[in-house]
Each structure stands twice: as structure tokens, then as C-alpha cells.
């Protein structure tokens, strides 16, 4: 189908882009400075003098995997609290506020103890205790600053852009951008935030997080599917719990729990601060060091967790929803440090990238049974052994089982036949181009450099990951496909259509034209 | 510019190393040096003899070259019985290939170079873009030009595009936030307005290859095109390349942009029943204004103070103080060439639905009772002005801004004047625009939720209009392809 000249052109392209790529790595070496402070915190500065602005990314090596038993959602809850200010920001009188917040915790603890009594719970006493807790909150709120989101107000008034944070299974991250003349202000605010966080207005913010859960999971059929699917996929590892937390836990954990989580995991040795922009490392590092060195050194927490045992049989989760069908399946694979990691990346690209991808061509273009289909690693995280997942979105008139059949046919091809020379070259060319395209923004660079430093203790792995893909062979892909994509290692998640009320129909759901 | 920054930091470092430079104890004590003047590189503007407007923006940081052509004419001029035409066109323009190469052949050719040529359809324009490594420019640009001038719209790809749209139609009631956004838009502009209406099975099925070919012949002429290129190239060489490629392309009839009807729904309370949720999506909605409105700057300050960001009134009151919502926001919408939507948006648990609507009503009533204060104005203006640099901190952003001004007929120095205009906004201006554009009695309330769990019936607000969002059945020809219907 393709002419010889196309092959030749491809080889030329590879050569040329490889040159450009190595030039970039060399120039990045010159522009990046890494320093581990005495307290164990790692600082990365990347000089990118394109405009007088900078972006930062604070990476904390703790995510929802570290949530204590019965307190799911706590890592994410603390992330919200990191916007609530400090002992200097957000208060009228911290000495008074501290005492009042301690009283809130006492009252809450008494309320929860009564609420969770297995026998002899006193309903009237419970009401009194709940009221006492709410009164204590009202008393504490009197000490907080009249402007409720003072931390955010300072960042926004000073020109902060895209202020946000995220929590996932593997880590927690904080980011925004500032004009470059606010570098020292940022160093003050960001270090202060993790030096003296105050758990003020905790229980109101917990209500906000519960609304976040309702929005993302409870009131969204795909959110419900992913939660049930992930829960089914992992029997032992904490990956089976939702990052946002179970509703009971959200209605139970306390500000004290959040403070304890912070004390244990937000230690300098567990944190990497990356800044990228129009900065000179020689001038910036002393400023960052001055402020972030204030955070006291503490022992690196024990983050050992169990290893998910091999799955022995297929698991299936079928949700009957009043929404259109979806098909999802996942296979256990090793963590990101596996020597096969780049091979999984190559499979992702082959199966999922663009209109030449195998799943697009098979399910969308040729069979015309799906509007979208792809396969990818990293569900629900990638720091620990996780899933390589495939999904397909059936178009009207087609069913999830058809999706399974079509995806499995493509997987069988992967196991039995070598991929073509052309496909292998395409994967490698795209890996290099994707890297180049990711280098053009302060935010993207800060995120990538910080993440690779966290995962490999060396930001250069961002570039080496492309070299590893360059070494992948056809035999590697067959070997990994045969090892991973087997039925006993599979969990399936399906949304089947069901009418709004009552059980799912025994026969096929009504087709077209039904109102 | 860089010298100025260095000088400031050099001083700081000197003190630091001498151990006499103290840490700031509070944030107010942290020194903030002046931000050095920054004059971002401006794109070169060229008008070809055939009327095509070109912007060239060099950016030598990475070995990439990207281009995009924006073409006048979009979905808002499509007749109602072909709604969805622009979506089919936007996809099949690319997937349907050119006269000499099928879309599949283009896929192979481009993916081997990790390059992209993509097309799309929007409300007022269509686009065709490319992105490539600089060494592939000759080959990829050839594909771009061929697709721009000689698309084939092959029939097999029209079928795939239609099936994709049928899928979208079948799924449009699955997600409550999607329903709320769509129905709120219908309330603001009127259900039949091109700004609000949705593709349906029948209107997508009615789109033919002749429609796509005819659309292309009607609109794709050099005098209707604004082309922007950014990346690692030499402007003189790129200009020569573009003149060579497009110089002999003859002018065509100018695109006409007819008046688009806007007929807002009757103000009232509207309910969409959704039984599989535990959270309500709430909109208070009306019509906003355009960016050309002289009040635009005062509106920007108002929006920032009222509903923009962590430190706005809505976020502080509804989310942080009352704990009613995770997602909340709003303001007076301003579109480039037609009125935007006036909206207050939030989602809250079913049991606080009516309480939340009252809370939003209070926020609106407070605009008169407790007008936006000097302090709030200062915060809003500081926020807009101090973050102003992020509007033009990359060559690509500067190019995008200029292309938008060109497209909508704004002065090209619009951004330079924006800053001064924001500075001049007063508290009185902000109070005036709030009073001028926000009239609660002309707004509608929309709730998408599970009314059996609400704290009070929606009827406690007054008469209730129940919206029927049932998806109209497909015509017989594609009946077997329709999705499952609740």
C-alpha cells in the first residue's frame, strides 16, 4: 500500500528528528539545576527565558493510596485544606483560633463516638452532641479572617494564573503561574502553606468535597462505572478505593485526621518543588532555599503497601443504567519501573493513537460499531502494579459484547502476528515528536520534570523514556501481549441500558423510536 | 528586559549571601520589584492580492511549525433541517481525503511523520490546521494546501461521521451537567436559535455529499480566510512559500453572515427530571452582551469580583461559607459578535436544591443591597491587571489574539488598550453595569435533578415548566441505529 519513497522519507524523518531531540536534551542539561536542601526537599529550577513569568509544581509523594483504613478521601481532603491559609493568612487572632479549633475537634470526636456506638446509642444525646459541635464551629469561625479565602485572594490579586491542585492514587500536586517579579512572594506563600497549614472551616470544606463526589461519581454514569470497575479489579491493594473517598468515610474523618496525614506525609524528603520560567538558577535558588529550608526535616514516611496477588479468574461488573452502553476491560500489569514499561507504552500508541491506530481502524472505520475505542496504561495509577485498560463506546444499535469481541480480535492479532516495520517506526517517531511538543510551556515542563524526578529520582528520565521506546522490538510486543492479555487476568466493566425504574428488561432493550 | 530583572535579583543575592537579608515574616513584607517592560514579538501581517490575510509569528524555541486557516461561515448559517451539517463537514473535510489521495492514505502519510492536518466546524467559522516537525514542512504543507483546495468528501466517510453524530445524540441525556448546559442555552437564545439548537437524527441524516461540496464552494475562498503560522521558520521564506501556494488562487464571493435570530424563552422556572442523580444542576440564566459593548471593561471587573475565581463572592459565599457546592460561578457573558449568556451556575445535593436557588437569588439581590465594594473592585482589578501578561506570554497566544481581532473586526492594538481601560473602571461603573444587565425578573431558573429528593418542590418558586428532553425518534431509514431510550 505504501510506496518505497514513503519508506525512505520515513527514515530521513527519523534521523532528522533524532538530531533535534538530542540537541534539546543537551540544552536542557544546561538550563536545569537540581538541589536537595538540608531538610531533604528537592528543588528543580529550569531556566526558560521566553517571557517574564514562571510556573511551579509542588509534588508530594503521597496520594489516596496512603489514605488510612476507614478514612478514604483524606489525601484529597488535605489538598483542599492547603488553600485554607496558615497561622498568619486567614486569621484575625491565631492564638484564639487555635484554642477554638481544638474545641471543635473535641466536640466532633464526642459526636462521632456516640454516632458510631453499636449498642445503646442515645439519640437525644447524639442531637445535643451534634449541636455542641456546630456551636463550636460557629465560635471558631469568629476568629477566621473576614475574607474567607484569603490565601486564594492573595495569589489571585497578585496575578496568579491557573491556580489549582490535584490528588490521585499516587501523588498530590499544586500549581499556578506568577509574573516573575513575584518569585519571592511565591516562595513565601508556598513554603508557608506547608509549614503552618491551619485546618480552619474543615467541616464546611468537607461538604464541598462531598459535592465533588456527587458530581464526579454518584451523579455520573461513567463515574459510577469506573468506581465499581476499579473496586472489582483490586482485591488487596489500596487501588481498589476511590480517591475522592467513600461517602461514609467523608462523613466521618476529622480535621485532626487531616492534620495527622499532613504531619506524616508532607515532609520535605517527600516533596519536590519545580519552577520553570524566566529565572536564573544562581539568583532563584538562594530565595527558594531561604524560605523552604524553614520546613523542618522529618523522617520519610513508610509508604510500603501490599502487592496485589495474581488474579485467578475473570471478574465482571455490570451496571444497569438509564444511559447508553459502554464497554471497559482491564488487565493487571507491573508498575512503571518494570523493564517492560516502554513496551506497554508502545502498545498504547499502536492501539490508540490517531486514525492509523488499530482500534480506530477496526472498530470505528471498518466494523463501524463504535464511535471511539482505545487501550492505555495507568488505571487507576501507575506507581504500583495497575491495569492496562481497553474501552469502546458502542454506536446506537450495537452492544457491549460486540465491543469485547472486536477488542479481543485485535488483542489476538497482537499476540500472534508481528506488527509491521512501518508501525514500529511510527511508534518511535511519534514518541520523539510527542516529547518535543510537550516542552513548549512552563506549566507542562514543571509538571513533567517534577513527576519524573519523583518517580526516578532523575528528571532526565523524561528524555530517556523516549530512548527506551526506541529499543522496543516486535518480539517484545508479542511477548508482553501474550503475558498480559489473558482472560483470567481480566476485569470487565459494562454499562447496560435499563429503563429508568424497575429491573433491567429480560429481553433486549427497546430499540430505536421507543420514547 | 532581562537585564533589568537580573539587576534586581543580583541585589537580592548579594544581601542573601551576606546573611543580612531577612526572610519576610508576613506576605505583605515580601518585596515585589517592578515587572520589567515586556514587548512580545508581534506577528507580521500580510494581505495577499486575493484578500487572504496572513499572520506570521516566528518562534524558534522548538523545531515545530504549526498553521491554522480560519474561514468565515459556520453552523449558525446552516438551515435548521440540516442541523449538524457543519459537524459532518468539519470531520469529512479531513477524513474524506483529496481528489488524489483518500483520507486513509493521508492518515498513513501524516502519522509516519508524527504530523497532523485537521479540520473542524464551528458556529461562525471552519478551520483547517497543520502541525509538523520543521523538516517535514514541504510535505505536510502540500497536504494542507491540497486539502484546503481539493477536498473530495468521499461518501464512505460521511456515513462514519453521521454514525458518530447519531451516537452523540443518543448519549446527550446521559450526563446531567450536559443536559443543563444545553437547556440553559436554549432558554437564553430560544430553542430554535442557531446558537442553541442541536443536531437531531433526522437533520444529520438529511446531510448529503452535495451539501458538503456546496458549503466548500460557497465559503472557501482566499478572501474569506485568515491564515496564521507560528514556529521555527524564517518569515521571508514563509511569505514566499505562501505567495507561491496561494498567489494564483482567485477571489470568490465574500461570505455573508446573516442576522441570527435570538428569541429568549419566557422567564420562569424550568425543570428537567433526572431520576438517576443525587445532585441538582442549577442555572439562573438570561442574555448578556458583546465584547464590543463599551461597558465590556466594567463587566470584566464585575465578573471577576462576582463570580470569577477563589476570591469571588459566589465562590466565597456559596461554596466556602455555605458548603453548598463544589462547582459554582457566573457572570455577564460577552461573546465576540453576539450577546453571550448571563449565567449563575452551581450544582448541589438534591436536598439543598431550593435552598441554593434562594442563595443565588440573594446574591443577585445583594448587588443592590450591598454593592460591590472598593475592596472587591481593587482585588478584581489587581487580579486582571497583574495576570495580564499571561494573555501574551507566548508567541502562539499573541498570534491567536491577533487572528481573533482580525476575524471579528476589532482593532489589532485592542489588547494594548485593554489594560488602560480596565484601570479606569470605577465602583460606579461596576454598579451601573450590574444594574443594566442583571434583571432577575427577566431571567429563568433551570433545575436538572431528582425532584422527589428536593428540600421543597420547585413549585414553591412559582409556576413550573417541565421540559421534555426526549430525543426525537430517527427517521425510518436509520431506525435500527437509534440508541436505547429511557
How does this structure look, described?
The complex is a heterodimer of chains A (515) and B (486). Chain A has 515 residues and is α+β, with helices and mostly antiparallel strands. Chain A folds into three domains: 29 residues; 199 residues, Metalloenzyme, LuxS/M16 peptidase-like (Cytochrome Bc1 Complex, Chain A, domain 1), CATH 3.30.830.10; 183 residues, Metalloenzyme, LuxS/M16 peptidase-like (Cytochrome Bc1 Complex, Chain A, domain 1), CATH 3.30.830. In chain A, 47% of the residues lie in helices and 16% in strands. Chain A is built from 18 helices and eleven strands. In chain A, the strands form two sheets. A six-stranded mixed sheet of chain A has the order 1-2-6-3-5-4, with helices on both faces. Chain A has a five-stranded mixed sheet with strand order 7-11-8-10-9, sandwiched between helices. In chain A, a hairpin with a 6-residue loop joins strand 9 and strand 10. In chain A, helix 2 crosses helix 10, helix 6 runs parallel beside helix 11 and helix 13 packs across helix 14. The N terminus and C terminus of chain A are likely disordered. Chain B is an alpha/beta fold and 486 residues long. Chain B has two domains: 203 residues, 2-Layer Sandwich (Cytochrome Bc1 Complex, Chain A, domain 1); 198 residues, 2-Layer Sandwich (Cytochrome Bc1 Complex, Chain A, domain 1), CATH 3.30.830. Chain B has 16 helices and 13 strands. In chain B, the strands form two sheets. In chain B, strands 9-10-11-8-12-7-13 form a seven-stranded mixed sheet, with helices on both faces. In chain B, helix 2 packs across helix 5. The radius of gyration of chain B is 26 Å and the shape is globular. Chains A and B meet through helix 1, helix 5, helix 6, helix 7 and helix 11 of A and helix 1, helix 3, helix 5, helix 11 and strand 11 of B.
Amino acid at each position: 500500500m505504501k510506496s518505497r519513497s514513503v519508506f525512505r522519507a520515513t527514515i530521513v524523518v527519523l534521523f532528522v528528528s533524532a538530531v533535534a531531540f538530542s540537541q534539546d536534551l543537551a540544552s536542557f542539561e544546561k538550563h536545569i539545576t537540581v538541589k536537595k536542601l538540608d531538610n531533604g526537599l528537592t528543588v528543580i529550577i529550569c531556566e526558560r527565558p521566553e517571557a517574564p513569568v514562571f510556573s511551579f509544581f509542588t509534588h508530594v509523594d503521597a496520594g489516596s493510596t496512603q489514605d488510612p483504613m476507614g478514612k478514604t478521601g483524606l489525601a484529597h481532603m488535605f489538598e483542599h485544606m492547603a488553600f485554607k491559609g496558615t497561622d498568619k493568612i486567614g486569621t484575625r487572632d491565631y492564638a484564639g483560633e487555635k484554642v477554638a479549633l481544638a474545641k471543635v475537634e473535641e466536640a466532633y470526636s464526642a459526636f462521632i463516638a456516640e454516632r458510631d456506638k453499636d449498642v445503646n446509642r442515645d439519640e437525644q444525646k447524639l442531637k445535643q452532641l451534634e449541636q455542641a459541635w456546630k456551636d463550636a464551629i460557629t465560635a471558631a469561625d469568629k476568629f477566621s479572617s473576614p475574607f474567607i479565602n484569603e490565601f486564594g485572594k492573595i495569589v489571585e490579586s497578585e496575578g496568579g494564573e491557573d491556580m489549582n491542585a490535584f490528588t490521585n492514587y499516587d501523588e498530590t500536586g499544586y500549581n499556578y503561574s506568577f509574573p516573575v517579579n513575584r518569585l519571592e512572594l511565591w516562595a513565601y506563600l508556598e513554603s508557608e502553606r506547608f509549614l503552618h497549614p491551619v485546618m480552619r472551616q474543615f467541616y464546611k470544606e468537607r461538604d464541598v468535597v462531598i459535592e465533588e463526589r456527587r458530581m464526579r461519581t454518584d451523579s455520573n454514569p461513567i463515574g459510577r462505572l469506573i468506581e465499581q470497575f476499579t473496586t472489582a479489579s483490586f482485591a488487596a491493594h489500596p487501588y481498589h478505593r476511590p480517591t475522592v473517598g467513600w461517602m461514609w468515610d467523608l462523613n466521618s474523618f476529622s480535621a485532626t485526621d487531616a492534620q495527622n496525614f499532613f504531619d506524616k506525609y508532607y515532609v520535605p524528603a517527600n516533596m519536590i518543588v519545580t519552577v520553570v520560567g524566566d529565572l536564573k538558577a544562581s539568583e532563584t535558588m538562594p530565595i527558594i532555599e531561604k524560605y523552604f529550608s524553614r520546613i523542618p526535616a522529618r523522617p520519610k514516611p513508610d509508604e510500603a503497601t501490599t502487592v496485589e496477588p495474581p488474579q485467578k479468574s475473570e471478574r465482571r461488573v455490570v451496571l444497569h443504567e438509564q444511559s447508553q452502553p459502554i464497554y471497559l476491560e482491564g488487565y493487571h500489569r507491573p508498575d512503571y519501573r518494570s523493564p517492560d514499561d516502554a513496551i506497554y507504552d508502545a502498545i498504547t500508541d499502536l492501539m490508540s493513537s490517531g486514525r492509523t491506530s488499530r482500534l480506530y481502524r477496526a472498530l470505528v472505520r471498518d466494523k463501524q460499531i463504535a464511535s471511539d475505542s482505545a487501550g492505555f496504561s495507568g488505571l487507576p495509577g501507575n506507581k504500583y502494579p495497575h491495569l492496562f485498560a481497553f474501552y469502546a463506546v458502542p454506536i446506537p444499535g450495537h452492544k457491549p459484547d460486540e465491543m469485547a469481541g472486536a477488542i479481543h480480535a485485535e488483542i489476538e492479532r497482537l499476540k500472534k502476528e508481528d506488527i509491521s516495520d512501518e508501525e514500529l517506526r511510527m511508534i518511535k517517531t511519534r514518541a520523539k515528536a510527542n516529547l518535543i511538543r510537550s516542552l513548549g510551556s512552563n506549566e507542562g515542563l514543571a509538571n513533567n520534570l517534577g513527576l519524573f524526578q519523583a518517580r526516578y529520582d532523575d528528571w532526565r528520565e523524561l528524555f530517556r523514556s523516549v530512548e527506551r521506546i526506541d529499543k522496543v522490538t516486535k518480539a517484545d510486543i508479542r511477548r508482553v501481549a501474550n503475558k498480559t492479555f489473558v482472560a483470567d487476568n481480566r476485569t470487565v466493566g459494562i454499562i447496560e441500558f435499563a429503563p429508568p425504574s424497575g429491573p433491567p428488561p429480560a429481553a433486549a432493550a427497546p430499540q430505536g423510536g421507543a420514547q | 528586559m532581562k537585564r533589568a530583572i537580573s539587576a534586581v535579583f543580583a541585589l537580592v543575592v548579594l544581601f542573601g549571601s551576606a546573611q543580612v537579608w531577612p526572610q519576610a515574616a508576613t506576605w505583605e513584607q515580601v518585596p515585589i520589584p517592578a515587572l520589567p517592560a515586556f514587548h512580545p514579538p508581534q506577528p507580521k501581517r500580510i494581505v495577499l492580492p486575493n484578500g487572504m490575510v496572513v499572520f506570521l509569528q516566528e518562534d524558534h524555541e522548538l523545531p515545530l511549525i504549526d498553521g491554522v486557516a480560519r474561514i468565515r461561515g459556520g453552523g449558525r448559517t446552516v438551515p435548521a433541517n440540516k442541523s449538524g451539517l457543519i459537524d459532518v463537514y468539519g470531520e469529512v473535510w479531513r477524513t474524506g481525503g483529496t481528489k488524489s489521495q483518500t483520507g486513509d492514505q493521508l492518515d498513513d502519510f501524516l502519522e509516519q511523520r508524527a504530523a497532523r492536518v485537521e479540520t473542524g466546524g464551528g458556529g461562525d467559522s471552519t478551520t483547517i490546521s497543520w502541525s509538523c516537525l520543521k523538516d517535514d514542512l514541504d510535505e505536510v504543507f502540500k497536504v494542507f494546501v491540497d486539502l484546503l483546495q481539493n477536498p473530495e468528501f468521499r461518501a464512505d466517510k460521511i456515513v462514519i461521521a453521521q454514525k458518530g453524530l447519531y451516537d452523540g445524540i443518543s448519549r446527550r441525556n446521559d450526563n446531567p451537567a450536559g443536559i443543563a448546559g444545553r437547556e440553559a442555552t436554549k432558554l437564553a437564545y430560544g430553542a430554535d436559535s442557531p446558537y442553541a439548537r442541536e443536531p437531531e437524527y433526522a437533520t444529520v441524516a438529511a446531510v448529503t455529499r452535495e451539501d458538503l461540496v456546496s458549503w466548500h464552494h460557497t465559503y472557501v475562498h482566499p478572501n474569506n480566510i485568515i491564515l496564521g503560522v507560528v514556529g521555527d521558520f524564517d518569515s521571508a521564506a514563509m511569505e514566499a512559500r505562501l505567495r507561491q501556494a496561494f498567489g494564483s488562487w482567485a477571489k470568490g464571493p465574500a461570505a455573508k453572515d446573516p442576522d441570527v435570530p435570538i428569541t429568549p424563552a419566557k422567564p420562569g422556572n424550568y425543570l428537567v427530571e433526572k431520576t438517576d442523580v443525587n445532585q441538582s444542576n442549577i442555572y439562573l440564566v438570561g442574555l448578556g452582551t458583546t465584547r464590543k459593548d463599551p461597558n465590556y471593561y466594567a463587566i470584566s471587573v464585575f465578573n471577576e469580583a462576582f463570580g470569577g475565581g477563589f476570591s469571588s463572592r459566589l465562590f466565597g459565599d456559596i461554596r466556602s461559607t455555605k458548603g453548598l457546592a463544589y462547582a459554582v460561578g457566573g457572570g455577564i457573558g460577552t461573546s465576540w459578535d453576539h450577546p453571550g449568556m448571563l449565567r449563575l451556575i452551581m450544582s448541589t445535593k438534591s436536598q439543598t436544591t431550593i435552598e441554593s436557588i434562594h442563595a443565588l437569588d440573594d446574591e443577585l439581590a445583594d448587588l443592590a443591597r450591598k454593592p460591590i465594594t472598593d475592596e472587591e473592585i481593587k482585588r478584581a482589578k489587581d487580579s486582571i491587571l497583574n495576570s495580564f501578561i499571561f494573555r501574551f506570554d507566548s508567541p502562539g497566544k499573541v498570534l491567536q489574539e491577533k487572528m481573533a481581532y482580525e476575524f471579528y473586526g476589532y482593532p489589532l492594538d485592542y489588547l494594548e488598550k485593554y489594560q488602560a481601560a480596565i484601570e479606569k473602571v470605577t465602583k460606579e461603573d461596576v454598579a451601573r453595569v450590574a444594574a443594566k444587565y442583571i434583571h432577575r425578573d427577566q431571567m429563568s431558573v433551570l433545575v436538572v435533578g431528582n425532584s422527589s429528593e428536593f428540600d421543597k418542590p420547585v413549585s414553591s418558586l412559582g409556576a413550573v415548566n417541565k421540559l421534555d428532553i426526549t430525543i426525537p425518534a430517527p427517521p425510518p431509514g436509520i431506525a435500527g441505529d437509534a440508541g436505547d431510550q429511557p
